[in-house]
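Appendix C. Worked example: Phosphoribosyltransferase
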Amino acid sequence: MPLNIDAINASRYQNKTVGQTIEWILKPSASLKERTVLIVDDILDEGVTLKAIHDYCLEQGASAVYSAVLVNKILDHKKPIAADFVGLDVENRYVFGYGMDYKGYLRNAAGIYAML
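Step 2, the predicted output written as structure tokens:
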């Protein structure tokens, strides 16, 4: 199947353990108009950032937007968005490794770890 790969980088945590406002670091260079988009993300936590990226893609004219996350954090309240594809559901703990960081570090940890 023909496809293009592009990047988008939006951060709510900015190397902290609690979220703030979304900072748009990089937006896709390719047009999203009439395209099917798959957003691939490390973790679906509160869902605020993924929802903003999803909405941005639709605003740019994407015909369909799907999301895949490595980790979905199980919370006791409803999130503003659900991932279409989930690798692993985890408890509500701070997790890091395999691309997820702890205060900007440990993204390269060879495993998924949780803070106590």
